[in-house]
Amino acid sequence: MSTAKVVPTPSTTLSFDATSLIKYKLSDEVLAKVAASGSLRSSSCRSAVWRLVLRCLPYETKDWEVTLSRSRNLYRTLKEKHLVDPHDKKFSQDPELNNPLASTEHNPWNTFFEDNDLRDIIGKDVSRTFPEIEFFQNGNIRQMMSEILLIYAKEHRYVKYRQGMHEILAPLIFVIYLDNEGFLHAKENDELKTLTVEEEDILNCLFCKEYLEQDSYTLFCSVMLEVSRWYEDPAPSEASKQLIPKEPYMRVQDSVPSSRLMEDLVDIGNLLQDIDPTLAKHLSSLDIPPQLYGLRWLRLLFGREMPLHDLLFLWDVLLIDRPITPLAKCIFVSLLVQIRHLLLTSDYGGCLQYLMRYPPIADIDSFVKLARHYRNPKKNAKPDVKLNNFSHITVSGSSHPNRTQRPQRPVAPSKARPELESPPTILALAPVLQKMKNTIRDRSNTVSVPSSPRRSHEPHREPIRNPQNNDNWTKEVQMMEEQVSTLQTRLNEQDMMCCQISKALEVCAEDVRNAKSSEQCAALAQTILELSKTLLSIKTVPVNQSPSKNGKNGNVDEKQKLREPPQIRHINEMIDMTSKRPQI
Amino acid sequence: MSGTRKKALLKVIILGDSGVGKTSLMNQYVNRRFSNQYKATIGADFLTRDVNIDDRTVTLQIWDTAGQERFQSLGVAFYRGADCCVLAFDVTNAASFKSLDSWRDEFLIQASPRDPDHFPFVLLGNKVDLESQRAVSSKRAQSWCQTKGNIPYYEVSAKEALNVEAAFLAIARDALARESQETNDFPEFPDQIRLNPNQQNQQNSGCNC
């Protein structure tokens, strides 16, 4: 590769690695294209791209080291300032002067006790962060997250800490961690040969493991600049102060929006009205305005509406389109449009259960295209693919309450096979291939394990009358059900991919029939070979292999190994863990 | 709408401090499962369950709320139309018991039922499986309930599925009984026009002659 600065186009950035970060001339426009193409999904520089587009890093790579050392030092200073230790020598240890029980001014114990309350609140949430991902069960990571959130709360007294911020921070720290590991791996594998010593130094400084906490804080603050508007306290209204009679007909949507969050949710309702009047009318006739369910969608930037690997891709596209509110509103509406067929056929309870437990999106690429189309209809064409969701499961992989709860429609075990609303139709060949590749790569990163064992596939389950006696038995059953739903999710994904590949093959066959030159034939043969490779690579993972050596993708490129994080819990580990857990 | 509502729909709202187990209680009741892998509830969550009470199928719409969220951010009218409010605390956490007053008061302010003194509340003391760590005695909880107009009190464990079914069934029965008594917590029509001088119409009217 030449050392000249090249402007990459999306087609040349299929793998966006550390070298591209240094060698290419990057800008918001270029990175927007890279993000939209999905290249970051398999890249180990996602965190760097986020930091660039959020201005934590300048585009001039020469300035990175200075910028980084400044932000890292700043965090250290903040920590010294905010984390008060009353036992520190700088405070008098004489109980006459600084008594833990005295509430005198400047008593370091006051701040200490105050902080402890805040720590408690933060700790409760941090310990409940992505319970299905092993990475977040690590004590060090939890400690880092708690400190970051505490410092943020103390530095930003107008927003403080609010539940949900921990799930904004979590993907950020995760991505930075993965990229640091990825960089080390690339170095070991001698993938950075084309870089000069200086260039490598810059990257060494950027992807430095020791500064995970500092760098996460900086990135978190930048993301919060965009998101904090949805965390602000509402303006105090008269209603909260005294008992006054209210309008008897008052509904959620009738109340005057008292915060920017509510204002934005009202706007979203109006946007839906413009884009899909039928759906808007249906939801409004049921009294389900965005204000009722949208708080979590916005505050977590859709973090619970899709699995982490899809979420990160969504954030790639979202974080670069700043201020993010307009695109976030479009994503919100797209989520509704995406499941409109489910919503239109559901009653109040059914709709809310779909909205509170969003059924996983089958094709995230098309979904993102749809959201970008609503954001800018002239520039971005509307994807002509039929959109699909796995409506029978939740993002965590358990059975969807709308499928298990309705007494009139009991789900028989045999019917638990994937129920796509209709077979997915095919786009042009290339994007499908790309999507499949991405999906496969991603899948090596994240094993979706159901976070909560919910009622699964049995229609008539007897209530457990004496849990103590049946402890072992229940545990077994729950464990098996968890496994079933995890496997089911995988099967669904694979079924869908097989469907797409079969369609792609049909297209190929048609093209072969019409091919005029041998060159065309050769190209088509190549495509067919690629399809065959893809088919091979989606073989099921043998259950008895450990995740670190899992060989399911033996023929897929090296990059996967590099992206394979050992922290993510595999189903075997989960089984181990469940059996060791003292009680359920 | 109120016609169908009276038939078979009950809206139940669970309130209480963060971490007392509101989500676990709801899931234990609806799915008969316990998991220690729940994420923090952001905003609110929602599940339904059908129960048969005296040959009548009743759908419980259960709203689980975030413990840190105060009412205003959820929207002023979020709680209106509730048939019952479940207050939950953690028997091993005295602070969560102390917050009950403010949860109850705020519910009454925000939902403003017509007859606040008789609106059906239920108190659930969760985590009784952790008996050795108990910080709030059953007696103390009961006497609190007495001061609030004899709120029914249940000691439950979402983890052990202890009493959860019974508590929710009692909640449903209680709310249903009130419906049949034709009491109306949220009046269909406003009360008669009140000539209330401290209402806002006074501020706007420039001319009262």
Automatic annotation (TrEMBL), chain A:
| Keyword field | GTPase activation
Statement: the UniProt record of this protein carries the keyword rRNA-binding: no
**Disordered: where is this region?**
378-423, 439-472, 543-584
Stretches with biased composition (Basic and acidic residues): 455-464, 555-573
A GO molecular function for this record? Answer: GTPase activator activity
Q: Which SUPFAM superfamilies match?
A: Ypt/Rab-GAP domain of gyp1p (SSF47923)
One Pfam assignment: RabGAP-TBC
Q: Which domain of life is it from?
A: Eukaryota
Q: Keyword Coiled coil: yes or no?
A: no
Q: Where does the signal sequence lie?
A: none
Please identify the protein, giving its name as recorded. Answer: Rab-GAP TBC domain-containing protein
**What organism, scientifically named, is this protein from?**
Caenorhabditis briggsae
Automatic annotation (TrEMBL), chain B:
A single GO molecular-function term is:
GTP binding
Q: Which UniProt keywords apply?
A: GTP-binding, Lipoprotein, Nucleotide-binding, Prenylation
- Its recorded name reads Ras-related protein Rab-7a
Q: Which family does it belong to?
A: Belongs to the small GTPase superfamily. Rab family.
Its subcellular locations are: Late endosome membrane
Which GO biological process categories is it annotated with? body morphogenesis; endosomal transport; endosome to lysosome transport; oocyte growth; organelle fusion; phagolysosome assembly involved in apoptotic cell clearance; phagosome-lysosome fusion; positive regulation of early endosome to late endosome transport
Annotated region (Disordered) at 181-209
Identify the NCBIfam families for this entry. small_GTP
Q: Which Pfam families match?
A: Ras (PF00071)
Record keyword Thylakoid present: no
